[in-house]
Design goal:
With 319 residues, the protein is α/β, with parallel strands linked by helices. The protein has 2 domains: 221 residues, 3-Layer(aba) Sandwich (Rossmann fold); 36 residues, no CATH class. Helix content is 25%, strand content 21%. It contains 7 helices and 15 strands. The strands form 4 sheets. A 9-stranded mixed sheet has the order 7-6-8-9-3-10-11-12-13, with helices on both faces. Strands 1-2 form a two-stranded antiparallel ribbon. Strands 4-5 form a two-stranded antiparallel ribbon. Helix 5 runs parallel beside helix 6.
Length: 319
């Protein structure tokens, strides 16, 4: 007899073997129901609503004023996240790009951050005291970029791990406009870099500000966005226009979209623009253009500005 009480098959039982009616369910083909396009759209819409409900109703974005970037980011740079901004060694383009974003953050929309006026909210910048890898910050240069250095709190340390620890604590702080950290060569250690990416992502979710990591090219895994910024020389017909010009590339986005563009920053208006939008305009109508004395007439044509007049702290540049 079988251990379970079933009779073993024999040549005399023929088709009466009790296991003949059993089938292997694992080997049976499974029929998949075809899903129509409207049904797929409804499923994705419900999933999107669930994700948005988990993220909370206070999601905010900082628009870059560059259409291709804002479209790829579904509105702009997301708050409560860390964004990786990279540039080659010795190129200060990434530093200037971050300053332009911080300027836009301060003047984005009227209101308060945890009871503090957005325009008066401080900025925390964590960096080695003498780094110079991507430009050395000075008060005169930040004034020229339209950012008040009195609103920046500097945190200096020679060790990159301690700097990122300060950056992590600053990300958890509410009521600030943004947090920046220079990571130096820490990204060359892949295991430590991935652990820091996870820690910083959790810290940013606990706060309410924008986080920027500044340094050489590094893996963007774990960050909301990854950018590559490079300096771009002016065209021959724009050699009098000293405004910063960059080649910006969005190389990673959790939203899925990527983009690249040649952009220009106007320190007077505090806005980023596409270079092609300014290169077609007459030279005299370009904002923040310093007109040098004419060789033919020997007289100065003055300083013109399409957005505003030259700030008082830069009047000495015209003399």
């Amino acid at each position: 007899m079988h251990p379970l009480g079933l009779q073993k098959p024999s040549e005399y039982q023929g088709d009466s073997y009790p296991y003949d009616g059993c089938t292997d369910m694992a080997s049976a083909p499974v029929a998949h129901k075809a899903i129509s396009a409207p049904e797929k759209a409804d499923v994705f819409a419900s999933l999107r609503q669930k994700i948005e409900s988990q993220q909370g109703p206070d999601r905010r974005y900082l628009a870059t004023n560059i259409p291709c970037f804002d479209d790829a980011l579904s509105g702009g740079l997301a708050h409560r996240h860390v964004h990786l901004i990279t540039a080659l060694h010795g190129d200060a383009a990434a530093t200037g790009f971050i300053i332009s974003l911080l300027r836009a953050q301060q003047q984005s929309a009227p209101g308060t951050i945890k009871g503090i006026n957005k325009a008066q909210a401080p900025i925390i910048w964590c960096s080695p005291r003498f780094s110079g890898y991507h430009g050395h910050l000075c008060a005169e240069g930040m004034w020229a970029m339209g950012l008040d250095p009195a609103k920046i709190i500097f945190v200096h340390d020679s060790h990159p791990a301690r700097l990122l620890s300060a950056f992590e604590e600053a990300l958890k702080t509410t009521g600030i406009a943004g947090v920046v950290a220079e990571y130096g060569l820490l990204a060359s250690k892949s295991d430590q870099w991935l652990r820091w990416a996870q820690r910083l992502r959790r810290a940013a979710r606990a706060g309410d500000s924008l986080g920027f990591l500044l340094g050489p090219p590094a893996p963007s895994t774990g960050f909301e966005t990854g950018w590559s910024i490079a300096s771009k020389p002016a065209d021959e017909n724009q050699h009098l226009d000293w405004r910063p010009r960059w080649s910006a590339e969005l190389i990673k986005s959790r939203k899925g979209g990527l983009a690249s563009a040649d952009i220009c920053y106007c320190p007077v208006s505090g806005q980023l623009r596409l270079i092609r939008d300014t290169s077609t305009a007459p030279q005299a109508s370009l904002p923040f253009t310093h007109q040098l004395p004419s060789a033919a007439s020997g007289t100065a044509s003055g300083i013109t500005s399409g957005d505003n007049q030259l700030p008082a702290y830069l009047h000495h540049a015209a003399n």
